[in-house]
Design goal:
The protein is mainly α. Helices cover 74% and strands 5% of the residues.
Length: 400
């Protein structure tokens, strides 16, 4: 694992960089041994939905499929990279292929050459390639990785598609409400005051909101900007990151989907690493980096430490019931007892993939219903707050 650190060296100079260690405790010990007073030490971030340097998941998946096809055709790795350098359209990925071609032509192993670009190739990817080099099944591993990124690409697009509708509706509703409170409400308030019409409490409340927006918009803007900045700074701290990462699981409708999404990533990565004969502790540590959510990361790292001390996988994971549902613990426990852990992990992965697809299919309909009820209620209150005094005004005019 890689960790980003910041601290002060024995000369009193500020120093920051990246250190590689099996755990955060070991990394801290290594830095302290060098005389560095550590002020910040966090796991190095890896990609989540889009690869860095302008490489999308789709670009990366196509690259891996082409690479696997060339390797399966018994073309040497360096020659395959030379071909990919010519065929790859993404300029950043083309440059990476060229660099890999030069390194491999110079005698470097593929995994070693890939490890020079940790900003693009994460630990999970490198571990899989290292295992493939040992087993001799490089093309099969590349095809698996390509399918994995294809699935991630599908999930990301599904999330984006599901989010487009509510975002458009919310922006349109917000714009409409601003127009009502900024222009309609002040005019109606003036009309009712001139006619000396008694208005109900709900109407007075909306008039008050209109007054605040018109006269203190600058204070509202400062508050929003300040709150956003404070949230951003707090999100950068380990405590803040953990708070917000745990908060997303409490969001109605989306919380359960996020939980299944992270579980699917963990199960698929963990299963493949074990299938590649990578030790359980290392598999959990690598999985913790790819899952990216700090709640899952801490649970996996602490589970890895418990397994080091002799605990079984199911016992270690069962200490985090809010993170790992009972069904996962049961499957893993049976897998450990029967020696069919990888097989059962694959069944679990397929189960959660289908669950995610089903949830995404229902998500848009659910959001439409929720937004319809909420926005309909707000608009109904606004209409009622204006129609009641208008009715009173009409009665006064009719009585004249």
């Amino acid at each position: 694992m890689k960790f980003e650190y910041r601290g002060v060296n024995p000369l009193g100079e500020f120093k920051e960089g990246v250190i590689e260690a099996p755990s955060i405790d070991v990394a801290l010990t290594q830095l302290q041994a060098e005389g560095i007073v550590v002020t910040r030490l966090t796991p190095k971030k890896t990609f989540a939905f889009v690869l860095r340097k302008g490489i999308t998941l789709k670009d990366f998946s196509v690259f891996l499929k082409q690479f696997a096809t060339l390797i399966d055709a018994k073309i040497p790795i360096d020659e395959a990279m030379r071909v990919l350098t010519r065929q790859t359209r993404n300029p950043t990925l083309r440059q990476i292929c060229y660099d890999l071609y030069n390194d491999i032509s110079g005698g470097m192993k593929l995994s070693s050459a890939l490890s020079k670009r940790p900003d693009v190739f994460p630990p999970y990817f490198l571990k899989t390639i290292e295992a493939a080099e040992i087993s001799g099944n490089l093309s099969g591993s590349l095809l698996y990785l390509s399918d994995y990124f294809d699935r991630q690409y599908f999930l990301v697009n599904t999330i984006r598609s599901a989010a487009i509708y509510p975002v458009i509706v919310l922006i349109s509703a917000l714009a409409s409400l601003l127009i009502i409170f900024g222009f309609v409400m002040p005019q109606m308030q003036g009309l009712f005051e001139k006619a000396n019409v008694s208005v109900p409490f709900i109407t007075k409340f909306f008039f008050f909101i209109s007054f605040v927006i018109l006269n203190y918009w600058w204070a509202i803007l400062i508050f929003i900007v300040g709150l956003t900045y404070i949230t951003y700074i707090y999100r950068k701290t380990p405590e803040g990151r953990y708070f917000f990462d745990s908060l997303i699981f409490k969001i109605p409708i989306f919380g359960e989907i996020f939980s299944k999404f992270y579980l699917t990533r963990f199960l698929e990565i963990f299963k493949n690493l074990l299938k590649s004969d990578i030790p359980v502790v290392n598999s959990l540590q690598v999985s913790s980096e790819v899952v990216i959510n700090s709640v899952y990361r801490q649970a996996l790292l602490q589970s890895a430490e418990a397994i080091k001390k002799g605990s079984s996988i199911s016992e270690a994971l069962s200490k985090f019931p809010d993170v790992f549902p009972p069904v996962i613990i049961q499957f893993i426990s049976v897998g450990e007892l029967t020696g069919r852990l990888v097989e059962l992990l694959e069944k679990l992965t397929n189960f959660y993939v289908k669950e995610l697809q089903r949830d995404f299919d229902n998500l848009t309909q659910t959001l439409q219903a929720v937004l319809l009820v909420v926005l309909g209620g707000i608009i109904g209150l606004l209409e009622a707050s204006l129609l009641i005094p208008i009715y009173s005004l009409t009665k006064q005019i009719g009585a004249i």
